[in-house]
Write a structure and sequence with these properties.
The protein is of the alpha+beta class. The chain has two domains: 3-105, Winged helix-like DNA-binding domain superfamily/Winged helix DNA-binding domain (Arc Repressor Mutant, subunit A); 111-204, 2-Layer Sandwich (Beta Polymerase, domain 2). It has nine helices and seven strands, in the order H-H-E-H-H-E-E-H-H-E-E-H-E-H-H-E. The strands form two sheets. A four-stranded mixed sheet has the order 6-5-4-7. Helix 7 links the parallel strand 5 (143-148) and strand 6 (172-175).
Length: 209
């Protein structure tokens, strides 16, 4: 669908379908941040953490304007493929470049809210963000935490919520304070990569960093 062939009123309908709800924004982030991936409906629901009926409705709306394409894929046990109706973003959609640029350049989430939630999962001494949170492809991880008594369950819940909000799986690493201290002073390559590549410190209570 190209601009010169849009029917009267079609542009307005497209805009209404794209920006009419917070759920739609989550869907846009999911598909535009993962342009090479296909998703089953149950995966879309899980990743957006929204009600099934609402997700089905909005996915249908995005498909109706041509932003999403649907394709039936047969089960292939040898290749580990689950059969069903898969959805993916349509790169030939008229406003695809503009939408992808808008999503990739926009702030994925509030860093203030992130830190507030992180402080509830344990005694956090340092929290760094990079990658998807800085719209950078050159970071070692998206999230790096140093702290003690970190609740694995709370951390997993936090990551699931963040992935639903930013629309992409989050690469993360977490270390206890003693381990980080040791690896930092031993010039550990992984730790040095994190600190040398693009990142932003949300919190730093470690005097030696």
């Amino acid at each position: 669908m190209t601009a010169e062939f849009l029917l009267p009123g079609m542009s307005e309908r497209i805009l209404e379908q794209l920006f009419d709800s917070p759920i739609k924004v989550k869907l846009l982030k999911l598909f535009l941040r993962n342009p090479d991936r296909q998703f089953l409906m149950q995966n879309i629901i899980k990743k957006t953490q929204e009600r099934r009926n609402a997700v089905v409705k909005h996915v249908s709306g995005l498909e109706s304007i041509g932003l999403l394409a649907a394709k039936k894929i047969k089960t292939n046990r040898k290749k580990g493929i689950i059969g069903g109706l898969y959805y993916n973003v349509n790169p030939k959609f008229d406003f695809y470049p503009e939408l992808q640029s808008l999503v990739l350049k926009s702030s994925p989430t509030s860093k203030v809210k992130m830190l507030k939630r992180l402080m509830k999962i344990g005694r956090i001494k340092m929290a760094l963000v990079g990658g998807v949170f800085l719209n950078s492809d050159n970071s070692r991880v998206d999230l790096f935490l140093v702290g003690d008594d970190i609740s694995h369950k709370k951390l997993m819940n936090f990551l699931a919520d963040m992935e639903a909000e930013v629309g992409k799986e989050i690469e993360y690493a977490a270390m206890e304070t003693k381990e980080f201290d040791y690896r930092f002073h031993m010039f550990d390559r992984f730790v040095r990569d994190i600190l040398e590549k693009p990142h932003e410190k949300l919190l730093n209570r470690l005097k030696f960093v």
